[in-house]
Amino acid sequence: MAKQSENSHSSTRHHGATDNTPARRDTKLDRLLKNKTYETAKERETAVLVSVPPRRQTEAQTTEYLDELAFLIETAGAEATKRFVQKLEKPDIRSYVGEGKLAEIKAWVTHEKTSMVVFDDDLSPSQLRNLEAELKVKIVDRSLLILDIFALRAKSATARTQVELAQYQYLLPRLTGLWTHLDKQRGGVGMKGPGETEIETDRRVVRDRIAFLKEKLEDLDKQAHTQRKTRTNSIRVALVGYTNVGKSTIMNLLGKAEVFAENKLFATVDATTRKVVLDNHVPFLLSDTVGFIRKLPTKLIESFKSTLDEIREADLLIHVVDISHPNFEEQIEVVNETLREIEASDKPTLLVFNKIDQYKSEVDPAPNFADDDPDQEFPTDFSAPTPRPPLEQLQESYMARMHDPVVFISAQNKENIEALRELLARRVAELFQVRYPYSQPYGTVAE
Ligand SMILES: Nc1nc2c(ncn2[C@@H]2O[C@H](COP(=O)(O)OP(=O)(O)OP(=O)(O)O)[C@@H](O)[C@H]2O)c(=O)[nH]1
Ligand SMILES: [Mg+2]
């Protein structure tokens, strides 16, 4: 099989998703030159991506999902070098992919430098074991990858405890024989979880640890709850949305906060709250929260209860959407679905379409993956770009369609921010009136 760089034909890739165009050769030599010193040039781990899309899934969707997986891998500090796709009715119960595809992956892994194989789904404990035995490299599934990124990002005691809890819950059913033959390859992506000794101890120890972490979280929760109680008489607003849509950037704009914003997935894992006073309007509390993503592991949602409380207890949600993303409509759905899951879907909501500066009314088609073509990351379909409506038309249609107020902005270029401020101030004032009919908003709002 010819060595080929990761599929690079989708111009829908963006946000810095892995971009290995043949033109932009990033050879080992280039990297060494960049790093100057040979000895200290630490090589990035390389990852092979595997996806088993259901037959009804379009090629464009498959590419988008793989782009997102490549972006997650990049965020975790590794590089996606190859993609394997196999359309199946449902994943193989034994090895996730079929026998033939597994042999193909094995051939690649054996001949090309590969640190890990990453699956765009969760694997059952037995699939994980079988794949490890067969491929003899690190096997990372979607939950493990997301947990790894969360572990990198979590800073506060609460977030760290939440991540640790989710890691142990992930580990528990996978204890038997896990990673035993991989001791030498420990470290790097997918391995930031509990250390060697814990992995080798029995389930009881892990269960004890889970119980301990749950108790610790309860304590932290009580403290947070008491803190929140002191913020009486304030309307609480929470920024929600898919990961990387610009929530923290908006938080920084409105709240004059210094929240970490970055073109990486899950830049924010800790919740941050700031008091916001817009000119002479009613002050309110604004919280920035963790972003959502498709197939967010349920266990992770459960263990992030305290962070998600910020959303659950909010009076108003600002649902931020990245309109420049080709999949933005599906992302809206993922966010709405997650809100339903955490029982926060019936709150008043402002829909904020961000990144209008980057909106393109034409999106290049995704490459067409042929089912039985072994080199299927190569596109076989170069049809015309998919047209999308001009921004004005999209705005009109959304404004007419949604029952929630809608505003279109560019947080980066500070475009239309005044409209957002006005809308927000008006909604907060209305909510304040309903909630505290006998209160004066000014001077009564506690920090
Ligand atoms: N082009 C453009 N980029 C933007 C805009 N707003 C934010 N960004 C960029 O988008 C990236 C993600 O922004 P964040 O504010 O970190 O997004 P987030 O929603 O907080 O992301 P997570 O915390 O990872 O869920 C950053 O590189 C921002 O600079 C915008 O209006 N236009
Ligand atoms: Mg953020």
From TrEMBL:
Keywords: Coiled coil, Cytoplasm, GTP-binding, Magnesium, Metal-binding, Nucleotide-binding. Residues 203-230 form a coiled coil. Belongs to the TRAFAC class OBG-HflX-like GTPase superfamily. HflX GTPase family. The gene is hflX. Residues 1-37, 368-390 are annotated as: Disordered. The lineage of its organism: Bacteria, Pseudomonadati, Bacteroidota, Cytophagia, Cytophagales. Residues 235-432 form the Hflx-type G domain. This is GTPase HflX. It comes from the Bacteria. GO terms for cellular component: cytoplasm. Mg(2+) binds at S248, T268. It comes from Hymenobacter ginkgonis. The keyword Acetylation does not apply.
